[in-house]
Design a protein that fits this description.
The chain is an alpha/beta fold. It has helices at about 5-30, 65-75, 95-110, 125-135, 155-165, 190-205, 230-235, 250-260, 280-295, 300-315, 315-320, 325-350, 360-380, 390-395; strands spanning about 55-60, 80-90, 110-120, 145, 150-155, 175-180, 185, 225-230, 265, 270-275, 380-385, 385-390. The chain has 2 domains: about 5-30 and about 280-380, no CATH class; about 40-180 and about 220-275, Alpha-Beta Complex (Spore Coat Polysaccharide Biosynthesis Protein SpsA, Chain A). Helix 6 crosses helix 13 (about 360-380). It starts with a helix and ends in a 6-residue tail after the last helix. GO terms for molecular function: glycosyltransferase activity. It is found in: Cell membrane. This is Glycosyltransferase.
Amino acid sequence: MHGALLVTLLTLNWLIALLWVISTLQALRNLPKIPDLLDARFGAPREKSETPEISVIVPAKNEEESVEAALRTLLAIEGLTIEIVAVDDRSTDATGAIMDRVAAEAMAAGRRMHVLHVEELPEGWMGKTHAMAYAARHAAGRWLLFTDADIFFTPDSLLRAMNFAEGRVAKEHEADHLVVFPSLILKSFGERMMIAVFQGIAALSSRFWKIPDPQAKESIGVGAFNMVRADVYRAMGGFESLRMEVLEDLRLGVEVKRQGYRQRVAFGKGMVRVRWAVGLAGMVRNITKNFFAVFRFTVWITVLACAGMTAFCVGPFLAAPFAHALLWPAATVLFMLFLLYRYYRRYTGISTWYCVTFPLGLCVMVYSILRSMVVTLSSGGVQWRGTFYPLAELKKHAGPVR
């Protein structure tokens, strides 16, 4: 290799490796500061209320395969008084009938559950935001939990979340909005490889431990578990202010932080579980569906982000075979990934040795993001569970997600 080129590559790769070292050490030092709801203190019993303490809102469209099992985990919640508000959002399968049957059984057993049926989508709304806004208007709890129809809860999950968010263990935990990281049900090599890539990228781009800091820009929202005080949700304008937002969960988190409310995040392995995608193909489909929206439907931002991820996450490994000196920065990046994966294993169960698949997984992610952009642009919008949303409308209403 030409000497000048080698020096340039060596300098760039060592700069990349240094960034990985700084980001990894920062993450490993600060991630343990995020509370874990499995701490025994959060499971302390509390006096149950006669009125609902929390309303769990479950929107669903054509979710007949998962909705009954998900609702039954909510009906098994212990330790506090909840109501379930399930929304059948224009389903063409058995989702609505299943909800009605489960609700009838629940009411007969003295549990609070009711079902709302949406027959038509009003103009100017995404289906999911409309379903959640509609349900929130019928909710009686002083807290609202927005979740999905394929999320499974442990019986003590909401008790622990409420004890945390109401500051019953420590005053500094008190929150207006709480996100619990869901545990992903992973059954294949491809699923584990891709989720491990997400956790590696998060070390470079996210500082979750800064979320409680009102002066920090970091915010969070997760569709599986967005729990917010009902009065805060309404004061913010609710989902009525996010009518055409594809990433409504992230945008809710941004608005909570922007409007000065207290935001918290917590771990809780196994408390909230979801099968986000089935196999590697399912991962690609989900990224294709969502990720152009992450970059606010802007081509140059998407292309620049993909180029940056490739350079920082794959570049050192691609360069390594061309000179012995280039092996060392690649080895440094790999070792940082090993340390990150070893830490995250306690929450994900993914083997530390998946760090060696990181470059491959990153390439699949970049391909999927670019595919998301191309598919959205070529179709002129997003097809979401049978409803087409024009790109011009989505861009018009796209606010910041960070």
